[in-house]
């Protein structure tokens, strides 16, 4: 059973520690060196900023953002 979401900082820290120690699935952590000046041109509203940032971060690593959101250009749409 998956742990329940919690607004508590201590619980969040513990869950992050568990995630970092996990080997299933394997995670690759990348440095976030993408600034606002690197956002794609379609990021023209505040609501698109996070999606654009993640997309630009993936592109900088020669990868593609995988998402369930059909509204993000140039991403890999995870089939539902």
Question: Can you describe this structure?
Answer:
- The structure is a single chain.
- By secondary structure, the protein is mostly helical.
- The chain has one domain (9-77).
- 31% of the residues lie in helices and 5% in strands.
- It is built from 2 helices and 2 strands; from the N terminus they run H-H-E-E.
- A two-stranded parallel sheet has the order 1-2.
- The relative contact order is 0.11.
- The mean pLDDT is 86.
How many strand segments?
2
Number of domains: 1
- Helix/strand order: HHEE
Whole-number radius of gyration? 15 Å
Can you tell me the residue ranges where pLDDT is under 50 for at least 5 consecutive residues? none
Largest beta sheet, briefly?
2 strands, parallel
Spatial shape: globular
- The span between the termini is 22 Å
Structural class: mainly alpha
Distinctive features:
80 residues; single chain; 2 helices; two-stranded parallel sheet; 31% helix; mainly alpha
Q: Would you kindly provide a brief summary of this structure?
A:
This protein has 80 residues and is mainly α.
Q: Helix and strand layout, with pairings?
A:
Layout: H1 9-21, H2 49-60, E1 66-67, E2 76-77
Parallel strand pairs: 1-2
């Amino acid at each position: 059973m998956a742990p329940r979401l919690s607004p508590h900082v201590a619980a969040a820290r513990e869950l992050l520690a568990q995630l970092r120690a996990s080997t299933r699935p394997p995670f690759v952590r990348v440095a976030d060196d993408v600034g606002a000046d690197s956002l794609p041109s379609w990021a023209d509203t505040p609501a698109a900023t996070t999606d654009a940032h993640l997309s630009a971060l993936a592109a900088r690593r020669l990868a593609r953002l995988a998402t369930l959101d059909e509204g993000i250009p140039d991403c890999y749409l995870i089939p539902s």
